[in-house]
Design a protein that fits this description.
With 64 residues, this protein is α+β, with helices and mostly antiparallel strands. The protein has one domain (1-64). It has one helix at residues 47-58, and strands at 21-25, 30-34, 43-45. A three-stranded antiparallel β-sheet has the order 1-2-3. The longest helix has 12 residues, at 47-58.
Amino acid sequence: MPVKRHEWFLPRRTHNGGTCVETKFTDDAVFVRNNLRPTAGTAEFTHEEWKIFVAGVKDGDYEV
């Protein structure tokens, strides 16, 4: 679980202020949205779903 909880934050690798995924962790869920269009919609995941997604990213399942 990240240090920041209950507030939106950008990844540490965000440098140029461009479009990026903003994340918010709460006790019950993980929320994700586009930082440049925060009112366009928010995806909600359980902590277990998020752990599985992050493991997939680390394993290379989502290479672009």
